[in-house]
Amino acid sequence: METLMIKGGERLTGTVAISGAKNSAVALIPAAILADSPMKIENLPDIRDVRILVEILQDLGAKVDYHGDTMWIDPSNMINKPMPNGKVKELRASYYLMGALLGKFGEAIVGLPGGCNIGPRPIDQHIKGFESLGANVTNDSGKMHLKADQLVGTRIFLDVVSVGATINIMLAASKAKGITIIENAAKEPEIVDVATILNSMGARITGVGTDIIRIQGVDKLTGCKHSIIPDRIEAGTYMIIAAATEGDITLLNVIPKHLESVSAKLREMGAIVEESDDSIRVVGQSEYKTVDIKTLPYPGFPTDLQQPFSALLTKAKGTSIVTDNIYTSRFRHIDELRRMGANMKVEGRSAVIEGITQLQGAKVKATDLRAGAALVVAGLMAEGITQISDVHHIDRGYENLEKKLHSLGATIWRMNDGEDEGDWPGLYL
Ligand SMILES: CC(=O)N[C@H]1[C@@H](OP(=O)(O)OP(=O)(O)OC[C@H]2O[C@@H](n3ccc(=O)[nH]c3=O)[C@H](O)[C@@H]2O)O[C@H](CO)[C@@H](O)[C@@H]1O
Ligand SMILES: C=C(OP(=O)(O)O)C(=O)O
Name one GO cellular component term (predicted). Predict the structure, then answer.
């Protein structure tokens, strides 16, 4: 087991290149299953979720070459093997195997997904979508079996705005007979990215980025080349880090429009945020005003950034309230931040944060991916050394975290079990 060590208190400055989006990558790789010839995907982030998906595709008979940030996938000889357990449990996005395999083979046997433990994460809307398209879906103790002789396009109204259900239905419906309309669809940029690759493969999808998506099914999808959009959640995390360390960080390879809700909240606190076509500069301040945050589907404030933002709010004088309307119990980071001296508590679906608190380094645990990101933000602000265990959660979503932070001036390194923490920072630096 690895531990992340951070010696806090440095002002972080410089530039950082943002990687390709995790939540696009983990949908685009399963989407490649639908092609009948090789695909090339560029700007892939080197993160754990991507590596696990590669192994899953290889288990299914795909030929995958992965060098740097580019992946070639040849799905022409894939087999439809049941995947009830094992790797599918290690990430959330394995649920996209359901839509992709159903679209390609008319059948999928896939275990229920894993992913961050951030409260209940049902997939009833995915199932509703597959059933509406004509699939028979059964759940045998967590082993999902989906089967359809012929998927047929239809009108599907999502009861909740769901990123995963919208994408999964798009994957299956691309190969259905006739037209599918998804109403109350999610509008996240990653959905637009998935539709872009599917359309390049020969699909006919319109309306993405609005809440009504129209998919005209086609018989055949072929290989194509696609470059993944930048990761707005990784970018948002570095913006928060700039503000938290009173730093001055310029993010390269970003789409500022995808981050409007985050820029707005940072400005409301008093940070300086400057945008150009494909970069964002954040200049932190020594004093901040409190802000309230309410997470919402895109273009609202992303739930995936409320945890790191909560750590930053310990620097604002007074009471800030962070309400998560998407995952109402996504607050496992609060107890860990309290171990570092934060004055915060959970009330219903909100975290109430009293500032200003000077955080202190402590031994803490990354309970999930963005809880881990919150602890990194806190560790960078804290006095002394912060030791974050269960780093594998953080590795699901942040490429080269230590390297990027080190280049901005942070003192951060990784330790294996049994290593002497007195050796810092030799291991990484
Ligand atoms: C791999 C990936 O892209 N993960 C993202 C995706 O997760 P994911 O796709 O799992 O999240 P959804 O958008 O589906 O979930 C949104 C809300 O709808 C609920 N729901 C969802 C599906 C369903 O069938 N029934 C249902 O009730 C969920 O419990 C949640 O309250 O979007 C989330 C919300 O932006 C992000 O936090 C995750 O980072
Ligand atoms: C919740 C997240 O990921 P996943 O849906 O893959 O668990 C996240 O990226 O913050």
Answer: cytoplasm
Asked whether residue 87 is marked as a ligand-binding residue, the answer is no
Ligand 2 touching residue 397 (CB < 6 A): yes
Q: What is the pTM of this model?
A: 0.97
Q: What is the ipTM of this complex?
A: 0.99
Closest ligand 2 atom, residue 304 Cα: 10
Mutation to probe ligand 1, out of 126, 159, 162, 166 (largest number of atoms < 8 A from CB): 162
- Amino acid occupying residue 195: A
The answer on whether 123 is annotated among ligand-binding residues is yes
The number of the ligand 2 atom at minimal distance from the alpha carbon of 369 is 10
* Contact (CB, 8 A) for 306 and 324: yes
Catalytic residue among 18, 109, 116, 195: 116
Same fold, 2-19+230-423 and 22-227: yes
What residue segments make up the domains of the chain, in order of their start?
2-19+230-423, 22-227
Where does 60-111 have alpha helices with state H?
Answer: 96-105
For the Cβ of 25 lying below 6 angstroms from any atom of ligand 2, the answer is: no
Domain 22-227, CATH number (from 3.40.5.10, 3.90.1210.10, 3.40.190.10, 3.65.10.10):
3.65.10.10
**Residue 207: DSSP 8-state:** -
Select the CATH number that applies to the domain covering 2-19+230-423 from these four: 1.10.600.10, 3.65.10.10, 3.40.50.10860, 3.90.110.10: 3.65.10.10
Atom of ligand 2 nearest to the CA of 164: 5
**Does ligand 1 lie within 6 Å of residue 228's CB atom?**
no
* 272-331 per-position pLDDT tens digit: 999 999 999 999 999 999 999 999 999 999 999 999 999 999 999 999 999 999 999 999
Residue 156 in marked binding region: no
Instruction: Report cis status (omega within 30 of 0) of the bond before 189.
Output: no
Testing ligand 2's pocket by substitution, the residue of 22, 87, 305, 399 carrying the most ligand atoms inside 8 A of its CB is 22
Strand partners, 20: 230
What does pLDDT average to in each consecutive run of 10 residues of the chain (429 residues)?
Answer: 95 98 98 97 97 96 95 95 90 96 97 87 96 97 95 98 98 98 98 98 98 97 98 98 98 98 98 98 98 98 98 98 96 98 97 98 97 98 97 96 98 83 48
